[in-house]
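Side project, low priority. Logging it here so it doesn't get lost.
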Amino acid sequence: MTRCFFIFFLLAFASVSGFSQTKLVEISTNLGSMKFKLYDDTPKHRDAFIELAREGYYNGTLFYRVIQDFLIQGGSKSSRGAAPGKRIGYGDPDKTVDDEILPKYFHKKGALCAPRQPDEINPFKQSDISQFYIVKGRVHTMGEIDTMEIAVNRPIRNKIVQSIMTPEVRDELKRLKEEKKVDEFRELAQQVKDKIETEYKLNTGVIEFSETQREAYTTTGGYPDLDGKFTIFGECISGFEVIDKIAALSTDKNNRPFTDVKITVTILN
């Protein structure tokens, strides 16, 4: 009796507290199956994906965009039954959700992500959940990761420096130096430095790869160029070899595989 009451209490607590078990899904294809866990802190994407999967929306669609060392993309309804060689459209503009781009999730191999329209026509970065992509990427060296940071961050810093180190400020620093006003020179120089650093740290375009990112990108691989630009709402937990098989397929000029890879999505819990 006591045990039954305890189980009942746990179930009641879970219902009241909003506790949710991590959702697991299986994406099956004619080349094998992959299992993914969906993140609880991207609930809009998780719930929309689950709803469409339960409706059978993705079933019978294709992985229609395949690029080795980049990604495999599928789920678009226009790919279902598409004739060989037909170019597949974007997706369903009526099935969008607000972005849930979280810095802690990144484009490591096996990341399950939502595509979207470009910024110029989609400034709020809303995702098209009527399809999805899975990162294949490649393994990078630590030097390549460093170079990516420099290539993005150096122009940002240079622009900030130019905006703060105006001709007037430079002239004032030069004057203080020539007049040997050391304390005033150091004070102004420190103010300029602090302002540059503050604006640099607040700039949303700056990238700094964490140790976790660096480890993943230099071991299992991924595609860091996409970080911060798209919502990642899950990750592969088994079936990585299937990602490799699909990514290695020969494709036409539109990156559609010559061999159709049909999709079935199943909610496992």
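Brief comment: The CA atoms of residues 37 and 114 lie 15 Å apart.
Revisit when time allows.
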